[in-house]
Amino acid sequence: MVIFMRLNFLAIVSAFIISLGGGASAQPWKTVEPSSAGWCVERLKAAQDYADILKPTAVMVVQNGDVIASWGEVTRKVNVASVRRSLLSALYGIAVSEGRIDLGSTLADLGIDDKPPVLTGAEKQATVRDLLTACSGIYHAAAYETDDIRQKRPGRESHPPGTFWFYNNWDFNALGAIYRQQTGGDIFRNFAERIAQPIGMQDFSAEDGRYVAERQSEHPAYPFRLSARDAARFGQLYLDGGRWDGRQVIPASWVRESATAYSATDRGSMGYGYLWWTLNPDVFGPGAAMASGYGGQAIAIVPSKHLVVVQTVDLAQNAKGVRTSHFVKLLQQLATAAP
């Protein structure tokens, strides 16, 4: 009885919080009672108890487009770190479908270079597809890198393009530069107009993005700030094959390709698609994927359960953040609790 009272109270509070804010055209999330949706309430509570230990800023659990549970500050916008890459991937899907970007184009074709030591002829043979799958073989210094990546970065020309996966900020930043060059648009304004507005994001605006340049590279990073409830909409868009309210926002083929593992990684059973991590199909079923960022930022889709799970972490509140492995464990608990 106590468990049901707690979850019912959370559902009422969540429905109120989620309905606040946003533009007039945004439709608030509908919240349903977990037990009536067939969830195991005891397992859901155990997952929440585990999440409470991790101290995220917010978690949202969405199934079939309805909020099953949420806790924390779902309207608080945080820097979602490397989740930015999956957001850019969505814009790439649109640009590719419009013929503005060719995945087979090489950096030489596109005139992409960098500050000295400049790219070699061999490095410039990397294609846009190589960058999307983090297999460019270009190990030039990049903006917005972590110390860990700087230490692990392979030597220049140690791997030919397309042959070796490395979680490489140079690839991701250069993709931002290529997008702007080939479309003539700004990443954040385009995201607001082409994705955020059509799917009814309630908190995001183009001012929630910024470019971060550093002296060692001419290609800036492009961090985004998102709320958990807006991130959940993005996850739902991908879960539904790029379609929202009858409109194809992102090509369905691109969504499928993004969540296909093209590269083995150093993260065990996790693979890498087009700027999306793929999750172990033996655990989560086919097509499960995740956008993941430093400190515990995550948007996960589990098609076999019609499930979207979002976690945000404000590092100003929780300096240690949440490890990716801990979020994956939480996701597994939630998937087990789901019907």
Topology:
Layout: H1 2-19, H2 41-54, E1 58-63, E2 66-72, E3 78-79, H3 83-97, H4 107-110, H5 128-132, H6 147-152, H7 169-183, H8 187-196, E4 212-214, E5 217-221, E6 225-226, H9 228-239, E7 243-244, E8 247-248, H10 252-258, E9 263-264, E10 271-272, E11 277-278, H11 281-284, E12 289-293, E13 297-302, E14 307-312, H12 324-337
Antiparallel strand pairs: 1-2, 1-14, 3-6, 4-5, 7-8, 9-10, 10-11, 11-12, 12-13, 13-14
Helix pairs in contact: 2-12, 3-7, 3-8
Kindly describe this structure.
- There is one protein chain.
- With 339 residues, the protein is of the alpha+beta class.
- The protein folds into two domains: 190 residues, DD-peptidase/beta-lactamase superfamily (Beta-lactamase); 114 residues, DD-peptidase/beta-lactamase superfamily (Beta-lactamase), CATH 3.40.710.
- It has an eight-stranded antiparallel β-sheet, sandwiched between helices. The chain has a two-stranded antiparallel ribbon with strand order 3-6.
- Helix 2 packs antiparallel against helix 12, helix 3 runs parallel beside helix 7 and helix 3 crosses helix 8.
- The two termini are 21 Å apart.
- The N terminus is likely disordered.
The CATH level-2 architecture of the largest domain is identified as: 3-Layer(aba) Sandwich
Shape: globular
Adjacency order of strands in the biggest sheet:
2-1-14-13-12-11-10-9
Order of helices and strands: HHEEEHHHHHHEEEHEEHEEEHEEEH
Distance between the amino and carboxyl termini: 21 Å
- How many β-strand stretches? 14
**CATH level-four homologous superfamily name of the largest domain:** DD-peptidase/beta-lactamase superfamily
Instruction: Using the coordinates above, name the CATH class of the largest domain.
Output: Alpha Beta
Measured by DSSP, the beta-strand proportion falls in 15-25%
Number of helices: 12
The level of helicity is 25-40%
Largest sheet: 8 strands, antiparallel
Q: Please, how many domains?
A: 2
Instruction: Output the radius of gyration.
Output: 20 Å
At CATH level 3, the topology of the largest domain is: Beta-lactamase
Structural class by helix and strand composition: alpha+beta
Average pLDDT rating = 93
